[in-house]
Amino acid sequence: MNKTEALCGEYMIDLTNDEFVQYRAVGKLPLYHSCTYRVYSSCGYPSAFLQLRSSWMQGDFDVAYSTASWNFNQDFDLLPSRTHGVDWSGSFLTAGGNPDGVISEGSEKPALPAEAMQKCNSANRNLYLTITRIKETPKPNTTETFLAEEREMQTLSDFYIAFYSDLGGPVKYAKALGAISFALFAALSVFAF
């Protein structure tokens, strides 16, 4: 296992093997270093929910993403054209560009039928996601702010990320986000102690 994988977790995230949600807690990411993930699903839209450890880190990370539709064992670099199959892409800074931290093509698409997730029979989809630290904001010096942040999240991680399959559509998407947010909070609270 290399240093980046030890910090970021595995590159390949397969959401079709009875693991519809996977989590990562990423520790101190050095300046100008990145965590990159390929999230695969045939159970809907592969999606991610990013949460920074502290509000004072807003603007410290650049997030870039794209989605593509091909099989799990096909490699992005082996395709004839790097633009072939790219369905949706974008980027944002963690400061206000995407305040809720959601990265899901499904939020902009019609809802898929429930059986897409139950039977994992939707199209093969991949979400490519890179999170890069572009600056290091110093911790605030005020005792009140510091104590509030420490109570909020009692870990040494810079950010947390949940990967999940989404059926899409605005109504189901909102319900899924609520469930993921709750599950992420519950899962991460285990690491807090």
List the main descriptive attributes of the protein structure presented here:
193 residues; globular; 9 strands; alpha+beta
How would you sum up this structure, described in words?
The protein is an alpha+beta fold and 193 residues long. The chain has one domain (3-191). 22% of the residues lie in helices and 32% in strands. The chain is built from four helices and nine strands; from the N terminus they run αβββββββαβαβα. The strands form two sheets. The protein has a five-stranded mixed sheet with strand order 1-3-8-5-6. It is globular.
Strand order of the largest sheet: 1-3-8-5-6
What is the helix fraction of residues, given as a range? Answer: 10-25%
Task: List the total number of helices.
Answer: 4
Number of strands: 9
Which blocks of ≥5 consecutive residues have pLDDT under 50?
A: 78-83, 188-193
Give the overall pLDDT as a whole number: 77
Gyration radius (Cα, Å) is 17 Å
What's the structural domain tally?
A: 1
Mind summarizing the main beta sheet? 5 strands, mixed
Distance between the termini: 26 Å
**Which series of helices and strands comes N to C?**
HEEEEEEEHEHEH
Our estimate of the beta-strand percent is: 25-35%
- Structural class of the secondary structure composition? alpha+beta
The global form is globular
